[in-house]
Amino acid sequence: MGPLTKEIPQINLREVRDILRLRWWIIPLCMIVAAGLMFSQESDLQTTPLSTTVYKTFGAKDEIASLAVFGVDPNSVKEFPTFQNQLSAVRLTAPKKVEEILGNTIGVAVSRTDPQVSMVNSAMGDGGQRFTVMSVGTPNYVFSCTAKHRQECDKAIDVFVSEIVTARKDGILEGLKNLSSSIKAVVGSDNVVVPDLGLKLAAIEAISPIVSGQLSLVDEEIAYSGGTVSTVKISTYVFGLASGLIIAIIIILQLTFTDDRIRSRRKIEALGAELSFLGEMRQDSLEADINQTAAALVTQARRSGTTKIVLVPVGKKLVPQNTVGPITDLAHSRSIQITSSADVDSLTLGGLVDNPSTAVVLVVFKHESSVDQLRHTYEVLNRTGHQILGITLSDSNL
Question: pTM here?
């Protein structure tokens, strides 16, 4: 097995740690996304329940109350048909119109509340008391509907309201018409003289054209059923966070398997290369590392019988002067000349073959140079007969 050809046999925990330092944000990101997905899934149950029930209450306008001003008791106007019969007729005809408009059958329940009642007592001439029970105000109509979507209930209830309005209007007008006919019969009689009946008749005829049977919405309530949730449980968030953590760990392990960047000397050593590792130059211990690396270069140069070393970058076009300068000065004091060149892909034919006996040291840059780039550089220099003394590792920001 040749140099720089051995694959990494297994994942090293230190390599996982290196990936984690660089990609730490993967863990909180995955956990937040997973928890968000759990929340949105349960939120969908809130916004898309299996069924929706709509309750609407409509108040009826008392359009004949003003007759009392002219001496006509509003209770003397009897709707025909009665409101119970009106509701029965609407329950029979309205569902057919709903089906025609919406294309499907939607049930709507209609009920009418009882009006308020008050009791009035008055003194009689013989010292007794007279109690009169009076209906106060007008009753309300309550509509309830259950369907998959609220819009369907709204449209169905609108149809029923329209039918109720028409039935109320016709009933009130029929009651006014009957009362008017009765008054006319009395007024036309020669045997009965009631001076104010003409005023009452005029009031009834004046109010009839403005009767509309109008209903006004006074209350509305929406209820959901079949799949709704009141809150998102804590256990749901815990499950989402745990799932996100597991996914993040899988991603980090995958990155460790597929990561081709050289992030530490262990990556170089794990390649099983036959080359010597000559030193590492780190930002936090630069002075000591430069001395130790320069000493290793001088020693290797003396062992190989050369006084000239060329530094060849891996993963960069050129070796930074901050790296070359201090090492060159130290090596020069020991009669070793150190220079740098461009990367192998930038070298011309002359640069590759004119000095095949030149000793070469490969400079790898942490987090920037890749294993493939290192193999490529090594193979090109080895094929062209260069003497490769070893490899150094340098921080990329030097």
Answer: 0.46
